[in-house]
Amino acid sequence: MPSFTEDRPRAGGALFGHLAAHLPAGAEVLVAGPHDDALIDALAGRATVTCLLRSQPEAIELEARGVRVLCGTLPKVTEAERYDVVVALDGLGRLCSVEGPQLDWAESLQALKRLLRPGGTLLLAVENELGVHKLVDPSSTTSAQDDSAWRPLGEFDTKPGNPGRLAARLSAEGLAIDWLGAAWPSPEAPTLIATPNALHDGPADALAAVTASATARAYAGRPVLSDPRRLAAAAVRGGLGPELAAAWIVAAHRAPRPAAVLSLPPVLLTAPVASRDAGEGPAAADGAVIGLAPGRDGAWTRRVLHEVPGHDLSALDGPLPRGRLLEELLLAACLRDDLPIVRRLLTGWASALPDATADNVVVHRDTYTVLDPSVPPQADVIRRFAETLLGGGYAHPWPAATDVRTLTTILHGAAGLPDDVPPGEDPPPPDARREHEEQIRALRRQLADAASRAQWYERELDRRDSELRKARMQIAAFSGSVGFRVAKLGYGVARKARNRLRKGLS
After folding, report:
1. Domain-by-domain residue ranges, the chain?
2. Is the pLDDT reported for residue 1 higher than 90?
3. Which long-range contacts (CB under 8 A, 24 or more apart) does 157-165 make?
4. What percent of the chain has pLDDT over 90?
């Protein structure tokens, strides 16, 4: 389309680059839809790449870089174009335009299959319309949020709604699945991809902690309906991780089976190594790729699959820590008003890992372990937990502590630390609307309590004013009577006589 540019993020990131690196070398590859330049360059370095784009300005820009481009839409591509690999990690939603036929998801899949040679591989991403990223999104997927959403179908689209139906749909089209993974936390640039078997049969608590950590990095400072970390961790722990993932990534092939298929670990994730370096943006933060897999003894281990120059990630090689996030355990204990558990967790945390934040520590029995050793030490981690407790609107055993400094002092005392809290700014209001509502309810309770106290003081003031008025009336009445005047005169005479006697005796 002339003068049209895509206004949504393009598919990319370290994990997609890692998947592309496992595609057959020397193959003819069709990249369908908008993809990140780094991903296209990585593919062009090992294969012959053709890009299918509907935006004419982006097609001209890409062609100027020496990449073969088909500028148009998917229905216009003829079957004379056949490829060994088709990469559609942006999904199938941006392959048509208003200038031609509007294919739905199933029709687009059939069109891409026709472009595969026998034995060809399809690398496809399918966004989940019921994923956590949709459940916390304040906007509606059935209204046009940008210029490219002229068909905002949302959940009314024809794409499958869970991994099982996706596998069945691909099989019905004659595509055999080689690998399928659930992607978190966003479909365009996931930082965690795990197979359904890993999410169901793997260490649920550890994988839930990893999912919560990946989601926290993606939604930092973004407005949401509710805290996505809690939803993501609860989904994985409750066995609904594949069903509530942001997207599903699938590698499938057309018969006959190719000689080389994708061989990937059950779990892939990225390490935010650039978060410690000033001047590096979010795109550079996802350079390192970590693989998680079960060992021979059944224990899960992690291994660095792709390193970033200048960063030592050797600490990430080894066993995956067992246990549940300390932050979740502390929040649950506070909600239950279980003060002994809160004190035990805070004391163990302060003595074992005083420089690690609660969302980067896992607890297994009485053992405290850092989840991501690449994260640098943090200062005053207990204050950060107090900010989470108040900013999230969580109930806790100290309702009188309504500010961060007071609550931090209480938590320091429970942890056996000095109660001198270093100065710091109070956290900004939470970006989650549900937490906003909880804070509003808490403020209403405080206002109701203040109003009740004010009414009691008003009643006490009215009662005492009444008593004082009565006393003044009695005083005025007594002071005007004859008896009062005689008594007052006699009292004056007696006082003068006493004074004279004192002078005579002296």
Report:
1. 14-142+159-278, 279-320, 324-431
2. no
3. 157/104, 157/105, 157/129, 158/104, 158/105, 158/106, 159/92, 159/105, 159/106, 159/126, 159/127, 159/129, 160/126, 161/128, 161/129, 161/130, 162/242, 162/243, 163/196, 163/242, 163/243, 163/248
4. 42
